[in-house]
TrEMBL record:
Residues 251-278 form a coiled coil. It is found in: Cytoplasm. GO terms for molecular function: peptidyl-prolyl cis-trans isomerase activity; protein folding chaperone; ribosome binding. Residues 254-399 form the Trigger factor C-terminal domain. It comes from Thermodesulfovibrio aggregans. Gene3D superfamilies: 3.10.50.40, Trigger factor ribosome-binding domain, Trigger factor, C-terminal domain. It catalyses: [protein]-peptidylproline (omega=180) = [protein]-peptidylproline (omega=0). SUPFAM superfamilies: FKBP-like, Triger factor/SurA peptide-binding domain-like, Trigger factor ribosome-binding domain. This is Trigger factor. Pfam families: Trigger_C, Trigger_N. Residues 4-144 form the Trigger factor ribosome-binding bacterial domain. GO terms for cellular component: cytoplasm.
Length: 417
């Protein structure tokens, strides 16, 4: 039973418990009787062995089970009674043991969600963002698609950047290669190599020297290599004609193609505008509310970010200050959004979780089961999915409550400075 709550800090509480000896003993006897029903003791029929023998053989098991049960039940009841919002599982600073015929006294330290005073999330000013798609935007996309969809055709002119060149080469290191295919400007050789290939004609033989850096992915890394190259063929990408490009993408007419591009660009701009407004709202919430952050949660987030960056090959030690700041920002955002969601009665149903799984599966062209397996293997649960849906619903509320303001281009620049 909860005896008291000691405030260690705004985010950490010490819960003090004491369970009467008779209650502890009653639970132990109950546990022993349950064991008695199933225990197989030589010389006795199942369930008929004396309780004294059961206690002698299984007493410690029963005590361990009772200890776990009483601590867990006492903690859960105390959380409901005190209306605390735990962020992490409780920790016992000292060992908890049952001593027969004595009250069970123990303390648990729990990190809790801090109170946020004067929380205000209504009428946050966010800028209206234009989602207009201009004709030149569509033209730019179509011309880009014409280039991307083009094919490489033989060229008689001298080589230039992005040409495909087929050549033989040999080096002073003993390397000799025939019919090597290389896209000028695309690597993996250094830029100097590509530059040496530009302006050359079919059939031309020439020599040049290239210094390969130590970190080059080419086999000549760290070496100074002399090349002799003979150009055998040059191919240049020829774009699909503007008036034909719609057929490449399965459209009957250019106008139908343009309309679809316009719709896709509008949708993309709307999504970008919403994300920008969400970012601005969150930034203002973070800037205008100060409260103590839970140390344990910040440490967990620092660890998560560090592991993520390490997997990308970054030196975590060199960036620890930035990692810590980012972790604090993330934790602060999490707490604010959770409190706002709670105040607004935001919940996430199982049906919404299923729909989120389907949406992710479609986006990345994988099966729904694959999505579930990914999150289960990474986190052991679908809590990250649930949090994602929860936060999105909270942001929808924040946007609905926001004050959309229209600014001139000059005013927008002043605000962003």
């Amino acid at each position: 039973m909860l005896k008291g709550v000691e405030e260690i800090s705004a985010t950490k509480k010490r819960l003090k418990f004491e369970i009467p000896a008779d209650v502890v003993e009653e639970e132990i006897q109950k546990a022993l009787r349950e064991i008695q029903k199933e225990a197989k003791i030589p010389g006795f029929r199942p369930g008929k062995a004396p309780l004294s023998i059961i206690e002698k053989k299984f007493g410690q098991n029963a005590i361990s089970d009772v200890l776990e049960k009483l601590v867990s039940e006492s903690y859960e009841k105390a959380i409901k009674e005190t209306n605390l919002k735990p962020l992490l599982p409780p920790m016992a600073e000292d060992a908890i043991d049952i001593k027969r015929k004595e009250p069970l006294s123990f303390e648990l330290v729990v990190e809790v969600r801090p109170e946020v005073e004067n929380l205000n999330y209504e009428n946050i000013e966010v800028e209206e963002i234009s989602t207009e798609v201009k004709d030149e935007d569509i033209e730019r996309v179509i011309k880009g698609l014409c280039e991307e969809s083009g094919t490489y055709e033989p060229a008689e002119e001298p080589t230039q950047n992005n040409d495909l060149v087929i050549f033989d080469y040999k080096t002073d290191t003993g390397k000799e290669v025939k019919d090597f295919v290389y896209k000028i400007g695309a690597g993996p050789f250094p830029e100097d190599f590509s530059k040496a290939l530009e302006g050359r004609k079919k059939g031309e033989t020439f020599t040049f020297t290239v210094d390969f850096p130590e970190d080059s992915i080419a086999e000549f890394a760290g070496k100074k290599v002399n090349f002799e190259v003979t150009i055998k063929d040059i191919k240049r990408k020829q774009p699909v004609p503007y008036e034909e490009i719609h057929k490449e993408y399965g459209y009957e007419t250019t106008e139908e193609f343009r309309n679809d591009i316009r719709q896709r660009l509008e949708n993309a701009k709307k999504e970008q505008a919403i994300e920008k407004q969400k970012f601005d709202i969150l930034k203002k919430l973070l800037d205008t509310h100060e409260f103590e952050l839970p140390e344990g949660l910040v440490e967990m987030e620092i660890k998560r970010i560090s592991e993520e960056l390490e997997s990308m090959g970054l030196n975590v030690v060199e960036h620890m200050d930035k990692i810590t700041e980012r972790a604090k920002r993330n934790v602060k955002a999490y707490i604010l959004l959770e409190i706002i969601g709670e105040k607004e009665g935001v919940t996430v149903s199982e049906e919404e979780i299923k729909q989120e799984v389907i949406n992710i599966a479609r986006k990345y062209s994988i099966t729904p089961q694959g999505v579930i397996q990914y999150y289960m293997s990474r986190d052991g649960s679908l809590s990250a999915l649930r949090n994602s849906v929860f936060e999105r619903k909270v942001f929808d509320i924040l946007l609905n409550k926001a004050k959309i303001v229209k600014r001139t281009e000059e005013e927008s620049k002043e605000v962003s400075q």
